[in-house]
Fold these 3 entries.
Entry 1:
Amino acid sequence: MFASLGGKTVIVTGASRGIGKGIALRFAEAGLNVVVVSRRLDEAQAVAALCGPKAIGVAADVATTAGCAAMVAAAVEAFGGIDILCANAGIFPSATLGTMTEADFDTVIDTNLKSLFLSVSACLQELKKSGAGRIVITSSITGPITGYPGWSHYGASKAGQLGFMRTAAIELAPKKITVNAVMPGNIMTEGMEGMGPDYIAAAAASIPQKALGVVADIANAALFFASGEAGYITGQTLVVDGGQVLPESPAAMEAMG
């Protein structure tokens, strides 16, 4: 399955932990050259080592033009080009309205949304050369579908990613580049573990499958969007949440028995 991916090169941003790390490992397993991008070189190199000999770690701040240029240059030098960009970099600090500062808002928007634009812009020429370029965005159900107190800036950034995606998909279709997004629900990552056991238990109870997802669930969705088999899909989203967004009220969950 997905034999079309063998030998291709993928950049994964925000890949030092959590979903990004899972995506990098899954793509390495599928036989791709993997460029692991993180702000910290030691963390990027540690994940690259887990991916194997066809992976490199690159330190880059993808919220800056210079950082994105550096990651592209490293990918081209190591592997000769770029076929796939997995724009995964993101943060989710909590701050409610009234306490959230301008700096709080700007940091989240820059890291989650501006970095998407800069990463795509930097990779664009190489993706065109690929002849079958793929851009896979890690968005979220939070913002586009749901909300959560303290995450208005995060929700805005994730909804913004989908607005960017739809127009980018139109503009890049003639260049044979697809643009799609995976929308995770509650996934068990290091960040989720930091929310505490009470939050995790409550989150699992609100999901019809009664469990949080794992990073492999998101990585497999990203792998599909990156594949040749998904070549006629663009501007689309795939919710991966165990049914989390389906119940219309707590009563719907109670009716499950």
Note: Residues 82 and 126 are 5 Å apart (CA to CA).
Entry 2:
Amino acid sequence: MLPALALIANAAVTPPAPSAPTQQIIVIAPAPDVVPLIEAPPAPPPPPARLPDSVRALIDAATESGDEAAVATIMRFARQTNPETVGQIDALDAEFAAKVAEKKAIAARQRADALANAAFLDLWKGEVEAGGSRLTGNTTGFGLYGSLKLSREGLRWRNTLTARADYQRTNGETVTERGIAAWQPNYKVDDRLYAYGLVQYEHDRFLGYTDRYTGGGGIGYRVISTPTLKVDFEGGPAVRHTDFVEQGAVTRLAGRASLGVRWAILPTLNFTQDAAAYVEEGNHNATATSAIDTKLIGTLKARLSYNVTYERGALASNQSTDTITRATLVYGF
């Protein structure tokens, strides 16, 4: 009995074992109107478009040739067919343009140095023109025409020397007897503007004078200047001494205007126009020559030209307008 009570007593006085601590979980629910944000790293950019190798090879071939027109055409079509690589094409185009500009600058400096150091007898270019005709049968006759032109393009000065002679006989009578020689120096103010001088001698007794001497000067301007077309206009005063057949010798002041056109229609076909008019008291005169040149062999060309000459003070027995059509050969040197 005593042992059992001891056990009970011990059980009564023994405090209960402490219970294991409980873990508290706090859940915070989001507000019903708030969407949770999830941050993710940005996606890598897509690789840039690559210019196709075939197009790049075509562009490289065009740029290596140095042909600016061909390069411009290739670049235009490359941009149209590959719009996603326009940036790369623009970079290649800019690189080519920079190389071309550098080459042109070097060539311009070299040319300027060569012109500055050249002697006066250097750099001359010229051409000789000749033609003839012969008539037989009911009308007999023959005609001769020849001309010489020399020009020198210096750094600041441009000199031009010209001489022409035209002679024709029909049925034993002289019907054309004309000659002209002129020297014109030009001082280039810039690429377009220049000052000119003129010394000229003329002979044409069928238009009413045996000898005419002209001296003058003025201002010239290149109105159009492109690789294929050049148009020059000149104007200024002049002094003219004329030995008329009927009036005798007369010296007068005059105003002069001229127009020069050089047009390269094709690499082997060129058009030229030279016209000049003088206005003076009691007499006006003008001359114009239009010509078409076509290349034959080397520097040899064939020329078809049409000349109109007007003289207000011509002989009363003759017409005031004279025209000549020529077919000639021209040799350049």
Note: The chain has two domains: 53-114, 124-332.
Entry 3:
Amino acid sequence: MDAADALLEIAGLLERERASRYRAKAFRQAAAVVATLSEDVLRDPARLREQKGIGDSTFEVIRQAQQGVVPDYLAELRGAVEPERRSALRGRLRGDLHSHTDWSDGTTPIRAMVSAARALGHEYLAITDHSPRLRVARGLSAERLRAQMPLVREQSGDGLTVLAGIEVDILDDGALDQEPALLEELDIVVASVHSKLRMESPPMTRRMLAAVSDPRVNVLGHCTGRLVQGSRGTRPQSAFDARAVFAACAERGVAVEINSRPERQDPPDDLIAVAMSEGCLFSIDSDAHAPGQLSLLDHGAERAEAAGIPPERVVTTWGLERLRAWVAR
């Protein structure tokens, strides 16, 4: 098999499993190096080992691929990584409204995320890097976001429309962490709480109500902020009046995100039921921080299908024209 393809597949599988970002990046870097090398260098073990970005593990993958066999490391991962879950709802998803790049806390450039979305058959992908307050995630200032927007949109083509967006922090008082005029220029605005997650229920409710009442907001991201598994440990869900918040979402046409990351499983099942009863729309999103994580949509689709959410109430089952009309409401 092709060595670069083998390296990229390994990176994607590691990303889907949320393995160390540095391991996955090492294989992506090696694939990029391989793509620049002449056949003479690739066939010369000594010269290949000298190349910056080629380590012991990646060298062995390249060597075995050149021998026409599936590299041992790749074969092992194929057997260990859980395959995608193919639910009926997953088959109806047309795109993804929440993803990150190395402009904030993602691991790869915009182009790599777009390439992976195109390979999955997406009709659209929103790039939604973080806003300024989230400094630990290198949130985008207004200047950086303005610079990013045209670079995102110019990636559209070959059946995929790339949408310029943001995951904007909901500040303590419910205001949004970006210039209002700039938010209006974006294609998608996902609003999420990332700080003071243990705030008392009344002020947290007021905070979230203020955010979803802002006409620029399209999606309420991972609404409870909980973590139920994974390398970051666990974190309890935020307390707020879910019925009031979801009623406001329904009134304003704001979609409640079904976050597909297994470590989040957000909202919990009982809150999905509340959002359903209040008449909410939903957006099944990957919240991908690496190309291989875009495929995590299968987890969100499985949860939404189990909860009985009608596909027509999931905005990411809609075609691009209908999606744009909803955003412009």
Note: The chain has two domains: 3-80, 90-327.
